[in-house]
C-alpha cells in the first residue's frame, strides 16, 4: 500500500515526465561522466516510485525496470548524503539482494548519491557499481554528489521547458478566449450606439439617453474584463477569490448578450441565484459562455426558443444549470464538445466552440466540475458545481 511519502514522490516524478519517455541525451552524458570519474564500467540513473525502479539512463548495460523490493538503491535513496560500499556482500543492507547474490547480478562495489528535487523530495539515485571490490576517494565521492545535483538540474530544465511550451499554447488559447468573450459586449455596445444614432435628437431623447447609458455600461464591463483577464494571465492563472453574486453576474451577461438573444427571439428565464466563492471576472466569462451557447442552440420547433438558468443547493457547493430546448447533445458526444474548437449540434451553426473549453478551465480552476445532461425541455442542460459562499 502506498504511503503519503510515496504519493508525494509519485507526483514529483510525474512532473518530470520521465517514465516511458525516450532516453534523454543530457542524462546519458551524465551517467557516462559518472562512470569515468568514478573509474567503474557501469553507472545508472534510477527513478524509484512506489512500485518499481526505472533505469532512465545507463552505461555498461541496457536500462530496464525492476521491482522496488529488488532495488539496491531503494534501501538508501531517501537518506541524506551519498553511500559508498566497497563490498556489498559485507553490508547488511545489500548482502541478500538479488543484484548481489547472483540471482540477477553479482555486484560488489556500490556507490550512489540521491536525487533530491528542489522541493526536497527524493526520487531516485545516480548510482555507480562494479562486479569487483572497490572504493571511492574523497574527491571522486564529491564528484558523484555533484553529478547527482546536475541530474536534478537537467530534470528541472526539462520540466520548465515543457511547462513553457504548455504556457505558450495556453497563451494562444487565452488570446482566443479574450477575443471570444469580448465579442458579445462589443456587439451590445455597437447595437446601443446604433440605436442612439437612429433616435431623433429631440423627439426621442429619452430613448437615446437610455441607449447611451447601456452602451456606457457595456463598455465599462468590457474594459474591466480586459484588465482582469490580462491580470489573470500575468500572474499565471491565480484566482482572485471573493463573494460573487451569481444573479448580478447573469444579469450583466444577459445585458451583453442582448443583441444575440433578440436576434434568436429567445426567452431566457432566470431563477433566483446564490452567492458563491470565486473569481468574479472568470465566473462572468463562464456564465456568458454558457448562456451564449444555450441561446445559440435553443430550438424554435415548439415556439420561441427557451433558455433557463437555475440553481440547486448540494451542501458545500451549488449546482448551476443552464438549459435549452434545442436538439441536445448525445451522451457519446458530450466529452468531445469540451475539446478546444469542438462543437456540438449541426454543422451550420456558426462559432468555433471555444466556449465550453474555456468553461471547463474556469470551473476546474475553482475546484469544481462541469458536465452535460438532458434538459427537461429536451435540449442540453450544461451544469457546473461551484463552491458555496463560505
Automatic annotation (TrEMBL):
Q: What is its EC number?
A: 2.7.13.3
Q: Which UniProt keywords apply?
A: Kinase, Phosphoprotein, Transferase, Two-component regulatory system
Localization, per the record, is:
Cell membrane
What class does this enzyme belong to in the EC scheme?
transferase
Which SMART domains does this one have? GAF, HATPase_c, HisKA
Among CDD domains, the record links this protein to:
HisKA
Protein known as: Sensor-like histidine kinase SenX3
The primary location reported for this protein is membrane
Q: Where is the Histidine kinase domain?
A: 177-390
Amino acid at each position: 500500500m502506498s504511503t503519503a511519502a510515496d504519493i508525494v514522490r509519485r507526483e514529483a516524478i510525474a512532473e518530470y515526465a520521465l517514465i516511458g519517455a525516450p532516453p534523454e541525451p543530457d542524462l546519458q552524458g551524465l551517467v557516462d561522466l559518472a562512470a569515468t570519474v568514478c573509474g567503474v564500467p557501469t553507472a545508472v540513473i534510477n527513478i524509484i516510485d512506489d512500485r518499481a525502479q526505472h533505469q532512465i539512463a545507463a552505461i555498461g548495460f541496457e536500462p530496464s525496470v525492476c521491482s522496488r523490493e529488488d532495488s539496491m538503491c531503494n534501501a538508501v535513496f531517501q537518506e541524506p548524503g551519498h553511500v559508498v560500499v566497497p563490498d556489498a556482500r559485507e553490508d547488511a543492507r545489500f548482502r541478500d539482494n538479488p543484484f548481489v547474490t547472483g540471482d540477477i547480478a553479482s555486484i560488489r562495489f556500490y556507490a550512489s548519491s540521491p536525487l533530491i528535487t528542489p522541493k526536497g523530495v527524493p526520487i531516485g539515485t545516480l548510482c555507480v557499481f562494479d562486479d569487483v571490490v572497490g572504493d571511492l576517494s574523497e574527491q571522486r565521492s564529491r564528484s558523484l554528489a555533484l553529478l547527482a545535483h546536475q541530474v536534478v538540474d537537467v530534470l528541472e530544465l526539462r520540466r520548465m521547458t515543457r511547462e513553457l511550451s504548455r504556457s505558450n499554447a495556453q497563451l494562444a488559447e487565452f488570446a482566443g478566449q479574450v477575443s471570444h468573450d469580448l465579442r458579445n459586449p462589443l456587439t451590445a455596445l455597437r447595437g446601443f450606439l446604433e440605436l442612439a444614432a437612429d433616435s431623433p435628437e429631440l423627439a426621442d431623447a429619452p430613448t437615446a439617453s437610455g441607449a447611451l447609458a447601456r452602451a456606457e455600461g457595456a463598455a465599462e464591463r468590457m474594459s474591466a474584463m480586459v484588465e482582469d483577464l490580462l491580470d489573470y494571465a500575468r500572474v499565471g492563472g491565480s484566482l482572485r477569490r471573493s463573494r460573487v453574486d451569481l444573479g448580478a453576474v447573469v444579469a450583466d451577461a444577459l445585458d451583453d448578450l442582448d443583441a444575440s438573444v433578440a436576434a434568436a427571439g429567445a426567452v431566457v428565464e432566470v431563477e433566483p441565484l446564490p452567492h458563491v466563492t470565486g473569481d468574479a471576472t472568470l465566473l462572468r466569462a463562464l456564465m456568458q459562455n454558457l448562456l451564449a451557447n444555450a441561446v445559440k442552440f435553443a430550438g424554435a420547433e415548439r415556439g420561441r426558443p427557451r433558455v433557463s438558468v437555475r440553481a440547486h443547493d448540494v451542501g458545500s457547493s451549488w449546482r448551476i444549470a443552464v438549459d435549452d430546448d434545442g436538439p441536445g447533445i448525445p451522451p457519446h458526444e458530450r466529452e468531445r464538445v469540451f475539446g478546444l474548437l469542438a462543437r456540438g449540434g449541426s454543422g451550420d451553426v456558426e462559432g468555433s466552440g471555444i466556449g465550453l473549453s474555456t468553461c471547463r478551465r474556469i470551473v476546474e480552476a475553482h475546484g469544481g466540475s462541469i458536465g452535460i445532461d438532458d434538459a427537461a425541455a429536451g435540449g442540453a442542460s450544461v451544469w457546473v458545481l461551484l463552491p458555496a459562499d463560505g
